[in-house]
Structures are given as structure tokens and as C-alpha cells.
Amino acid sequence: MIQPEKLQRRGLMFVLSSPSGAGKTTISRRLLERDAQLSISISVTTRKPRAGEVHGKDYFFVSEDQFARMSMENELLEHAKVFDYHYGTPKEFVEAQLAGGRDVLFDIDWQGTRQLAQNARGDLVSIFILPPSMEELERRLTTRAQDSAEVVQKRMSKAEAEISHWVEYDYVLVNRDVEETLGHVVSILQAERLRRQRQPQLAEFVKQLCG
Ligand code: 5GP
């Protein structure tokens, strides 16, 4: 007998992509604070930590050799080279969360999103966040002040390439205002959780309902 309050749900993979500086990190953080059913996938990267970044919280910072080993041993759900570094998603954590009916948030680029779409389309919900203008994007990257002017310029030139993949996403939001964008992201997540195919026990429940 399935009790209505005990209906289980399959976890979903919730991807937020955007060019660096479009506000994705703030939105991810705010979303995680308010949603207890959601955990973030912490990526591995060969990039060096920025000031204030913590190993195991922002990323797992690894050497090129460690990354190559993880990739070879099939420990990564997806991986890509972004800027000059390797980034990848550890598989074990994500699989355990999904199996337990929990949702996983990913802050990954279009290459990783494409790989997830190829391997697990049914579990994936993807959102692309656009900046309101390229001027605003540059302003945000500069005031973030974590990167040198040279790195900011490099990120600006990569931004257009990243944006060109907007059509591959399920939802596209223009981040004019963080509160407004966060509201849209919350609505999308709530609606996607209710999709019929994410509720595997529904058929049995309905059978029970109607006798
Ligand atoms: P950053 O170096 O600014 O933290 O991240 C640079 C880019 O790498 C961002 O667009 C971010 O979404 C992407 N990224 C971070 N982790 C992963 C990952 O595990 N896989 C992929 N494909 N991209 C990632």
C-alpha cells in the first residue's frame, strides 16, 4: 500500500550554465540555502584555487595526473577542458544522490551539459543564464576582482563562445536581477519535480486509488 505522502520521486540533474560572471554562482548558492532536497555536485579541477576557495567545498583541486587517472578509471560522469584547465564531475556522489531521490545541482559548461544530455537525458533539466549585456558582464567580471585584467579579457572572449550554445538548453533566463532570476529557477525546479516520469510509483498509486 503506497501512502500519498510516501510517494517516491526520482532525483533530477539540474544544470545551471552561463559565461563566468553572469550570476550563476550567486544563484546556485541562494538556491542551495533554501532547498533541502538539493545538493551540489563538487567538481574536480586542475585549476589552482582562487583566493578564498576551499578544497572540497568549491572544487576538489587535483593535479593533471590525478585528473587523468580519474578520467581513465571512469570515475567522472562528464569532463571537459575549459579555458586552460580540466574540469569534471565525480560520478559516485551524483549516482548515490539520484538513487536516494535527491536532486543534484551542477555548475558546468556546455560541453559537460551536452555529455549529460547524451547519457542521461531523462534525468536532466538544463538552464542557461544570459547576462543582460556584454558591458554588464565585463563590469561584473572586473568588480569580482578575483582575476587579473588579462584573465578578465580572456573570459570575455570566451563568453560569446559559451553563449552560442544557448539553444542546447531547456530553459534560458536573462539575469537582469538576481531575485527575479532566482524566482524563475525555483519555479522551474518545482515544476520539473512534478513531471509524471519522475514519479515512478504513480501507476501503482493510481491503480490503488481506483481499485
Ligand atoms: P571557474 O574556473 O570560473 O570556476 O569555472 C570555469 C567554467 O568551468 C565555468 O563555466 C564552470 O561552469 C565550468 N565547470 C566547472 N566545473 C565543471 C565540470 O565539472 N565540468 C564541466 N564541463 N565544466 C565545469
Strands, helices and their partners?
Blueprint: E1 13-17, H1 24-34, E2 38-40, E3 44-45, E4 60-61, H2 64-72, E5 76-82, E6 85-90, H3 91-99, E7 103-107, H4 110-120, E8 124-130, H5 134-144, H6 149-163, E9 171-174, H7 178-193, H8 202-210
Parallel strand pairs: 1-7, 1-8, 2-7, 3-4, 8-9
Antiparallel strand pairs: 3-6, 5-6
This protein binds guanosine-5'-monophosphate.
Question: What fraction, in percent, of the residue positions are helical?
Answer: 40-55%
Q: Assign the CATH class of one domain.
A: Alpha Beta
Structural class: alpha/beta
**CATH fold-type name of one domain:** Rossmann fold
Total DSSP E strands: 9
CATH superfamily of one domain: P-loop containing nucleotide triphosphate hydrolases
Largest sheet: 5 strands, parallel
Strand order of the largest sheet: 2-7-1-8-9
Order of helices and strands: EHEEEHEEHEHEHHEHH
- Pick out the low-confidence regions: none
Q: What is the name of the CATH architecture of one domain?
A: 3-Layer(aba) Sandwich
Radius of gyration computed on alpha carbons: 19 Å
Q: In percent terms, what proportion of residues is strand? A: 15-25%
Outline: globular
